[in-house]
Amino acid sequence: MTSSSRSQGFGSEVQRRILIGTYALSAGYVDAYYKKAQQVRSLIREDFKNAFEKVDILLTPTSPSTAFKAGSHADNPLDMYLSDLLTIPANLAGLPAISLPCGFDKSGLPIGLQFIGNILDETRLLQLAYQFEQSSDFMKKRPKGALIP
User: Fold this and answer.
1) Helix (H) and strand (E) counts for the chain?
2) Which of 9, 50, 79, 90 reaches 20 to 30 Å from 57, CA-CA?
3) pLDDT per residue as tens digits for the range 82-136
4) Rounded to an integer, what distance in angstroms lies between the CA atom of residue 143 and that of residue 123?
């Protein structure tokens, strides 16, 4: 039952990340990985705290590159991890963030834009995301060759 509940419904990438997290929290590795990660997390929170003393919302790319075709990085977990790189800091700091489409690259694949808000400032973040959607038509457009109607 445990094997089924930990594998059904989870793709290979999610399973891989669960295994890495379990390994990092296993006996003997807590000091090496978890405690160090907590220290890094504190530094990241402090950086965001300093930024939000100057601005209300941060605007960043969602990922370091535009979208890639489905399945094109299935054999390369490192590429998959790198595509998440710019969303990780907000998650580590416990900050609200939202990603929206903001255009298309030369191949017609979507480009993501991320708004990051301060702690407990979800209302402002959602209002800004809504205003952005209302002032642009990116939500109505589809990538070239998209199967979505």
Assistant:
1) 6, 3
2) 79
3) 777 788 888 888 899 999 988 888 877 788 899 999 999 899 999 999 999 888 8
4) 30
DSSP per-residue letters across 68-127:
--TTTTTT-HHHHHHHTTTTHHHHHHT--EEEEEEEE-TTS-EEEEEEEE-TT-HHHHHH
2: exposed, middle or buried (Cβ count in 10 Å: 0-12, 13-18, 19+): exposed
Tokens representing 16? 């891989």
Contact between residue 94 and residue 105 where contact means Cβ atoms under 8 Å apart:
no
Distance CA 46, CA 52 (A): 10
Rounded Cα distance, 72 and 74, in Å = 6
CA 58 distance to own-chain centroid:
14
Map tokens 């290979």 to a residue. Answer: 12
pTM of the model: 0.68
Tokens of 88: 């990780």
- Coil, helix or strand at residue 4: helix
CB 67 within 8 A of CB 117: no
